[in-house]
Design goal:
CATH topology of the largest domain in chain A: Rossmann fold
Shape of chain A: globular
Oligomer: heterodimer
Structural class of chain A: alpha/beta
Number of strands of chain B: 46
Largest interface: A-B, 96 and 88 residues
Order of helices and strands of chain A: EHEHHHHHHEHHEEHEEHEEHHHHHEHH
Strand content of chain A: 5-15%
CATH superfamily of the largest domain in chain A: Tubulin/FtsZ, GTPase domain
Shape of chain B: rod-shaped
Largest sheet of chain A: 6 strands, parallel
Helix content of chain B: 25-40%
Strand order of the largest sheet of chain A: 2-1-3-4-6-8
Radius of gyration of chain B: 47 Å
Largest sheet of chain B: 6 strands, mixed
Amino acid sequence: MKRLFIFGIGGTGSRVIESLVYLLAAGVEIRDAAGEPIEIVPMLLDTDADNQDTIDSVKVLELYEKLHKASGRSAFFGTKISRLASLAQRPGGNISPSFWLKYKGVQQAFGNFIDYDQISSLATKRLLEGLYSDENMNDSLTGGFLGNPNVGAVVLSGFKDTDDFDLFATSFNSGDRIFIVGSIFGGTGAAGLPWLQKSLRSTDQRAGAADAIRQALVGALVVLPYFKLETDEDSHIDSNAFITKTKAALTYYHQHVIDLNAIYYIADTAKKSYPNHESGVKQNNAAHLVELMGALAIRDFVQIPEDEFSGQTLYHEFAIAKDEEVLTFSTLGQHTAEVFARELTQLAMLAVLNRDHFDKAMHQPWAVKNGFTKFFFKTSDYQDLSTFLQKYFSQWVKELGENRRAFAPFAGFGDKGESGAIPITASDMALLRPDLPVRSKWFQPGLSGERLDIAANNMRPLEYEDKGSLQRFLTLWSQATRSMYDDCYGG
Amino acid sequence: MQPEKARNAFLSLSPNRATAEIGWHRRQSAYNDEYIDQIVDPSESVKKVLTAIPSPFARIHLVDSAFHFVNARDKQQVPKHDGNSVFHKLVSDCLDVLELLFGWNTMSADVQTSYWSRDELQKVQSSVGQRLLASVLDLFLQQDAKTAKFELQPDFILMSVGHQTIAISSPLTLFITSPRAAEIAVKAKLLNPGSGRIYFGDPVPLYRRSAEFQKYVHWMFQQNPVLHNACRRMYRYVNDSIELLTDRTLEESIRAIVNGPDNLGQNLDTISDYRGMPLTVNGVQLRQRKSKDALDRLRKSPMVIASPRWPTRLGNPPLVLDGQSDSFGRQVKIDLRSVSNDARERVLPDLGVRYPFLVASDLIEDQVIRVPYKLNSERFFLPDSRSLKNIECDYLPPLKPAFFEYFDADHIPKIAKFLPTSSGGLAFQVEVPTAGGKVTLSKSYYESPEGTRPGRIVEAKMNCAVFPLVATRNRPDLSDRYWVMLVDAEIEPELRNQDCFVMKFFSKNDNQAEADALLYKEIGRDMKGLQHVSVVRRSPKGAEASSTYFRIEGGPFDYITLEAFASDSVRRARALIVPRWVEREIGQRRAVVGIDFGTTNTHVAWIYEDDKRPTPNAFTVDSQELQMALLSAPSNSATSESAKYDEFDSSLKGTLLTGTKIRLHHEFLPNIIGSGGSPFSFPLRTATCEAPGLQAGQYQPLMNVNISFMFEREAKRHGEEEINTNLKWSLQASPEVEKRVEAFIEELLVLIRTKLILKGVDPQESRVVWFRPLSFGNFTKNHFNTIWEDKVKDVLKSKNLLRCITESEAPYYYHQKAASVITSKPTICVDIGGGSTDVVFFHDDKPQIGTSFSFAGNALWGAGYDEVNKTQTGVVRKFGPEVKRRITQIGNAEDRRRIEGVYGELQGQPCEEIVNFFFSIDKYVEFSKALSHDAGVRCLILLHYAAIIFHCAQVMHAKGMPEPEYVCLSGRGARSLDILDPSSDHRHIALLTHALFEKTYGVTITEPIKVLLAADSKEATCNGGVLKSPGDKSEPDTVVYIGDGKTIGELTSEQIDSTIRGGVAQNLGAFADSIAELSKSLAFSKLFGVKEGDFDWIATELKRKVVDYIDFGLKRHGYQANPKERINETLFFYPLVQKLFEIGNRLIVNDMDAKGTK
């Protein structure tokens, strides 16, 4: 199986990858031009050890990894996501066990990191004085690069000396592709992206399949500003300068970051201010449409046939059907919705059922026949699913819907107390997709747990796997929800 | 169909969001310049310098981007070169570097160039971090070699100020500045010529910069096509800037440059790097304007200082700038607030050229010192203050020492002045002459300036005096010592323990060879230096002001800096005190100076040596020839010349008045001496005033020890001073006394030297005569002689022109000239002093013999051999209460207090001192008059005088001399004879004298003996001394007549046997009989108003206990303890000393008792 190595750099990288995980969990497929499935190897590169966004992404990935193993022929969790470490012949050593690569750069000031005072070349010191400000030199890097990508470019380069990079390089096979995700206006992502591009292409890079890597198709998602930060005089990050910085960075990119095969640009006019947290646990921004669409860019990149590149960079932009503040699948545009609307709706149905239906449905034939007793629902396998759906996916949907610009494909995931919020329960899910009325028949109940039970009950008894396994459960429900979607929204 | 679909919207930053596309789709190109330009940046005012670019060379790209953004056009398609955004700032900074280089040779700070090459990276490998850094720098240089044009510029130019980088070269924009450039520029005062501001400050677009610079930039791009591509954004900016020009002429000439070959290059020089190689970026040589032209023009500017001192140490003649005109005198306001401290390092704000210039604060202090009195403009150079309401100035010149780098002291009144300001303050102006006229520099001062800003009028209670204020430029050896008295009257409790004022003395720096030497330097305390200063803090602060004395050696100083309240940040101030030296050429004339250093009094008299009819003058200092300069002005309202200078103007009040007066008169010296009604005059009491507790090694004349002008005029200042008298006879008593004598003599000689210089006399060629009593032993004489020789040589610089004459001989020459004493018969000169009487017998105009004995004024008024001063003489007992009463009646309160103070101190002192004091205040208490009415007193005086003459006659007779014709009397002790015989020719005394000689000689003397009483005996000595011909080397032989009526010669005390004693007693009896006889034959009661019959009992009394009293005398003079010692005087007077006391008691006390019974 061909692989796609994804470098998710910084907070934005993590968040885009997290969005990708939800898409894959919902059953969106990543296939190459030939229709072959692709193994995804996401590598989170974030020097900010406390970045809550990245921490969450890692948890989501880990849950996905487990659930994928249990998914079998289910469309849910169907795509293989592998940690880098899993590619190792002999894991261990300094290879990062987690999706989050261990390379954290430094936890000190840049000046200390490069041992500025001890540099014996006076001329180099003078040169650095010309290039770096006192802030650049003296601010602690504990929290990442704090909007100083020129510092990040140096610090991150240490990554290429890690066992992780070595493993990546040796694991790389001709035909595999590389995708880099990072924001252009922040610190870590902005710093890592061009450096990684240059490093991968550099003739000085000799690790592993260096030639294959130099020849590899590399795509990049360049995330431009899509939110603002609340103004904070003391912060190193001034979001008023996001645009200024972006313009400057873009100017550099278009002239100097030239050896990429595909570039995906995405941004949004900032409509929401996030609390200003330079880094760390508090940097836990609400999920945003841009991240989700960014995740779709990865799918897009993978399916471009190799011959289309023909030595030139393919540039991409993203468009929505309606420039509205709150988007749904419809206003996002049919073209885009087609890629993931059904899958995500299925997962949303599953999430609702998990939330307030399954514990009351153990008497249903689908449960009885397949051995989904109350013990099943208490297995750790199921608990993982439940956690994924409840704690992460539902939260993600809620955040997407409450952000601005909002992507609110489903009702019922927002805060219940919110005025105008449409309450969705398993007993009545008719208004789950606000943009699309449920097609109903007079003799059938509307979209609800009951009807989903019917759909599940109608499934052919599964021979597949053991009774009472998560595999059987996921398969059942991916089919049941698919059938329900087609019934309610299809055609 | 199309419009329908175009309702889709991009998720992008572009304002052109409408699209027909949907979802992820291809676009033709990268987000390129054209795309980026349409992104609206809401934050163009962001001031934070941004590092948005993920490359270690981010800053290079950032500046490149900055040009790109500033190249944007508005809706009218006008380039947006004006603006305050970060980008405008970066563009401006980049242009600043070029402009800074454009003025390279005249740059305002020391900017260094060096290089960085990739090879340096090999030295950056010593840690993981360094290796990463090196690899990333290398990676980006390699990967961006083409796109960032690093290939064009393998080495980076580094520009630094004081080891700090301000800029590095950039292949994209020629230069970028370092993030700290602005900060460094402020510190280094790097001035931008175009804006007149510090470099790297507010943005200035190219088209607003100097025409010269603009032309150069266009020329450079025109000449170097390589830049069109490498620096394409900058190139566009440069081209676009032409459109913005409003000056059509400039626009045309720039278009001409852009369009074709131009000869502008001729006006440009290359810039050399530290290796001397041309400075190049992308292979393009950078240029600068020809700097020589700018400097040449400046040297000819009308603003150039017109200083008599030329050239100044600054090299180039400094301009004088007042902020109202530019460097060439055009009326333009320029900002002078941030000029460098060093005038040499300054950069003209309007031109940006490093060229020295002066501003107000170079010459004028921030604060002005006001003293609470009028300043002495006669003796000090002061600014013109006629515009102030006060007639005379009371503000010290707030000039800085730098003034003297350009001007002389006498410029101060000509170009500096005080003016009132409209806001109630005070302005100080210096009209500095310049090549084109003058430039007025000024500062204003207020009583209470706002907040903590300077410009305060600081009141300072101080005064000072400079002595002597005379300079002899043609004879520096005679200008070798000066003293300055500083009075600090800041006696508020919180200031009592500190010196509020510091004085520093400056003179021309002879060592101009030193690099950077200032024209004037502080006179240090280094003894090795040509000049030095020593300081003595004499009297501490208390109820009165403190005093500090400075001695400055090695020549007159040029000015004093007075620093006030150094430890008080608000009141701290400084001013100059600039003495008006009285300049004198040393003349050709010579003088003879007599100095009579007497037991009680000292006198100085002098004549011109070449005077045909010399009339000796007492030493005086009058207002025409003041020697001292007091900072406070003389009083205009004073009634006498003396009061004008020594009593002080009423403006000098309180502690400052008393402080000045006390310190000046007690510790230093008065202004006026012997003139203009001065209470201070020669003869002067022989006394020193000194700081208490001095050891011999600590004596420093006029600093801690000085001639006491106040002794017996004012009470001693307890705890602050000690008065010492009896210097003459106790020279060898202790080393301290010797130091006192030396100090006294040095001060006298400095006064004399100054006087002579002012009189056009060469002190070196002048003779000094000093006087010794006959009774001085050889040792004492030699000791004194050594002191005189040393001091005369030290002060007057003369050699071998010192002479010593006996005190009693000297009056002869005086009388010889004054009274035309011409006789073939002998003349006796009798000098009756305080302690001793000296007699010289002249014959044939030559001093033949001399004799001396301890029987003088003190014997007349003293208490005999009472050693503990317990017993009061009859005179003191009788007249003391009356004098005391009269003292209380003295009208002038100040005099009364002063005299009461002295009188109080005299209690317990020897009676002769008390009587001396009574005589000294005679004009207040009429003591002489009271005495003259007392028969007993007259009797006593008669007896005293008669004893002396009796002895003289016996000596002459014994030596076989003919009888005399003249008896010349001098000395303090002789003054009492006026009481006995107030007639001008003293004929009654002459009769008595005549009779006594006839009795002794046993013959009738035909020629009446005449008595000459010197009006002032001190003067007689001194004047006579100076009048003695220098060729006359004669000296009298000293004889001792034992007093027994026959023996001549000195005996040791053990030789004084009973025969000798008996002889003396018998001889005294003969005297007693003679006087008793004469009292009848000459009718003393009529002649002298003494009581009839008194001399009968006196004669009887004189014969009693004579032998005992001889022993008293021997014992008193210490001979009994030293039997081998020779007795150098007659024994005749030993009993008389005690007898006179006893007889006086009886005469006067009987009279008192008699009156008491009435």
